[in-house]
Specification:
Structural class: mainly alpha
Order of helices and strands: HHHHHHHHHHH
Strand content: under 5%
Distance between the termini: 58 Å
Number of helices: 11
Radius of gyration: 18 Å
Shape: globular
Number of strands: 0
Helix content: 55-70%
Length: 211
């Protein structure tokens, strides 16, 4: 067993907090994983990961990292590790650190761009947490960190009452100048209006009708 297998084998996430139906599919995926049917595990984890199941995202990252059930792919592993982190999986933290060192600067930039594209589509379907995650991409994944862009997305996410967005907004706002903060707030007002036209009606706050 290689060092990589030892490290990632210890990070398999065995619990999904999803709805009962989804949790049943997760159990099937874990059964396949433990039974050595790794190609089936990849397929099931992939399906769940696309629906933002953090445990499935973390496990999919593991399988891509060790290259079992699917060709080894550090880019995909890094991508899904970050998606798992945005979903709240603490197990992804160490995976991200290790995988980052395995990628080139261009590879890390590619993953950041993919995250922005995919999270934007997720947000358009009404998942407000994806707006917060967009801010985190600019703050935590982009190299160098783009604080003003991060603040822009955290500000918009907070306006839509996305979980934890206000905390991220306040943290980043302390790291930029007063002028940058005011400029970003003006941009956020425009972006808020644009997203009022994109989100499903049941996700819109009353203030959208005033924007």
């Amino acid at each position: 067993m290689t060092l990589l297998h030892k490290i990632f084998g210890a990070t398999v996430v065995a619990l999904s907090l999803a709805s009962p139906g989804v949790a049943g599919k997760f159990d099937d995926a874990m059964t396949a994983f433990k039974g050595g049917d790794l190609d089936r595990a990849v397929v099931l984890f992939q399906e769940l990961a696309e629906y933002n199941d953090g445990a499935a995202q973390a496990n999919l990252a593991v399988l891509y990292a060790i290259g079992q059930g699917v060709p080894q792919d550090d880019l995909n592993a890094y991508y899904w590790a970050w998606r798992a982190r945005f979903s709240g999986e603490k197990a992804a933290i160490n995976m991200i650190k290790l995988l980052r060192e395995r990628l080139t600067e261009e590879g890390r930039a590619e993953v950041a761009g993919r995250l922005i594209t995919d999270l934007t589509k997720t947000a358009e379907r009404g998942d407000l947490g994806a707006l917060t995650a967009l801010g985190r991409v600019y703050n935590e994944v982009s190299e160098p960190s783009q604080k003003a862009e991060a603040l822009l997305w955290f500000t918009v996410a907070a306006a839509f009452e996305a979980p934890h967005a206000a905390l991220f907004r306040e943290g980043v706002s302390q790291e930029i100048s007063k002028q940058e903060r005011l400029t970003t707030q003006a941009r956020a007002r425009q972006l808020f209006t644009e997203w009022c036209a994109k989100l499903p009606e049941d996700k819109l706050p009353a203030t959208c009708s005033e924007s």
